[in-house]
Amino acid sequence: MLLEAVYHRPRLNWSYAYNENTIHLRLRAKKGDLTEVYAWTGDKYAWDTTKELIPMSLFTSDEMFDYWECETVPPHRRLKYGFLLQKGSERIWMTESDFQTKRPENPEKLFEFPYINRSDIFTPPAWVKDAVFYQIFPERFANGDPSLDPENVQPWGGKPERDSFFGGDLQGVIDHLDHLSELGINAIYFTPVFAATTNHKYDTEDYMRIDPQFGDAKTLKKLVDVCHERGIRVLLDAVFNHAGKTFAPFIDVQEKGEASPYKDWFHINQFPLAFDQDIPSYDTFAFEPLMPKLNTENPEVKQYLLEVAEYWIKEVGIDGWRLDVANEVSHEFWREFRKVVKRANPDAYILGEIWHESAPWLEGDKFDAVMNYPFTSAVIDFFVFGNLDAEGFANSIGKQLSRYPLQASEVAFNLLDSHDTPRLLTLAKGDKKKQKLASLFQFTFMGTPCIYYGDEVGMDGGGDPDCRKCMEWDKDKQDLDLFEFYRRLIHIRASHPALRTGTLTFLEASRQGTKLAYERRLGDDILIVLVNTEETAQYFQLAVEERQWENVLTDAPLRAERGILSMKLPAFGYAVLKAVY
User: CA-CA distance, 343 to 386, in Å (whole number)?
Assistant: First the structure.
């Protein structure tokens, strides 16, 4: 038993309250090392009458470690606990301070979960588990009101450039909501809609005004109301890390320098404002002079931005915020932001843009979720590029699941492309079979999936600005078969709770393998997903419960004989099987 690999910490993703009554415990060990693990638990004030051994299950693995997990419902919302580790006949007890061969005589040296305080429980909005998001870049989705077009507007469908405008607006979204409803979308994430000089609007000029090229606050209110009537939630983009160069306080600083009352609204390193080898004398997003970084530790800035966050929720009824460049803003600001937003709407979804491991932001006091780019990379590497084998992919997913409490994984924002990346179809070099495999995993994995506008009809595009093409509305140029594939995926996900909140178990994911099989299970709702990423047909033989199965994509029946489920998949083929009772 390699004790050096064993790890537990009484907080974060290792020991946490899942709800008001339930505590989840996790323990890490060397991969394949332990044969059994138990949690040794009880109430610290009634140890002798409440102590018990709770079996832990192997809930996920990565390339180096196994992660064991159990849940317990302590009678008085508090817990003392240790662990019993077994490798064959070898038994070791783990306390908070050491490992020992004998069972601890009393709970004094064990780990402790002092009490489940309701205010400390990380509780993301329940609706997000059932959401399917659709990301819209407003300037490129649809032109519904040509009277709002800027003077230099280009014909719809032209080649996008960094400074080009095509006249997309909020009325255009309203006009095409039937498209989203038919697809099955029930949540929209909009990139910024507030007044700004660029087509992407990440250089905010006025946080309290809708960009006149998109409409006004009445138009946004109409859009939100119509969406809500259709059961569609609306998420807006908050750019609170930085403003735009035409933001009134920054204009004042540019004009008055050190005499400006707004000089402390920003991070000014030197007056007068200048550039040295293209690096501004003030902090910005990256080194972009159009985007001066806001000083969110300044009380006036903080109050202004928090009022903005509250205003659009209360006055227009939006359902949450996506937070741009979220990891460059202080944790303290986001703690206050969460309190303000949740007071305005306890069901609001707070989504941070972070591209890497994000545990410090997912402790229940800041964000509900982050944009899950590590998920994106793993899916693209396996299903599209072939840079990972099946085992490597399963390990990558296992590592991600081990990092966060379950409630965070259940509402993770799982995307495959966005306005910041090349489109999925372009990454797949036009191979829609690969696009389908990647999307199949996205929609049968836990967390909320997001479709980037146009992916569902076969739009392609390289990096920015090519990934920001005008939406294709000509039916003759849309891939309607692909649209039907996405519509079917959304329907299957909505029909099976196991795909949203069930357990995930990899059934086949071998080294150098191109076959992937995994199970999603929630009570009697059991589904098995089979994927062949190889250019040739392959056979699957899986040990499963001996029962009738049905392919939900074709309605074809299939039976496991003697506990073995056999199936042949064509090149880049897939199947979703459900247990039939």
Answer: 46
- Structure tokens, 125: 């909005």
d(CA 97, CA 550): 51
Residues noted as catalytic: 324, 353
Task: Kindly state the DSSP code that residue 449 receives in the 8-state scheme.
Answer: E
- Tokens 């050096």 correspond to 4
**What is the end-to-end Cα distance of the chain in Å, rounded?**
42
85, pLDDT greater than 90: yes
Q: Is the CB of residue 283 less than 8 Å from the CB of residue 273? A: no
**Whether the predicted pLDDT of 10 surpasses 90:** yes
Q: Which CATH number fits domain 499-580: 2.60.40.10, 2.60.40.1180, 2.40.110.10, 2.170.270.10?
A: 2.60.40.1180
CA–CA gap between residue 300 and residue 303 (Å, rounded)? 5
Could you name the CATH architecture of 132-243+293-497? Alpha-Beta Barrel (3.20)
* Domain(s) of CATH 3.90.400.10: residues in the chain: 244-292
The pair of structure tokens assigned to 152 is: 């230099």
Instruction: Tell me what percent of the chain is helix, strand and coil, each rounded to the nearest 5.
Output: 30, 30, 40
Mean pLDDT across the stretch 482-493?
Answer: 98
**DSSP secondary structure, 170-193, as one string:** HHHHHHTHHHHHHHT--EEEEPP-
Q: What integer pLDDT is reported at residue 36 of this predicted model?
A: 98
Which residues face 520 on adjacent strands?
A: 504, 527
- DSSP code for 293: B
Residue 545 has pLDDT above 90, yes or no: no
- Measured from the Cβ of residue 57, the count of other Cβ atoms closer than 10 Å reads 12
Nearest to 16 by CA among 406, 439, 378, 428: 406
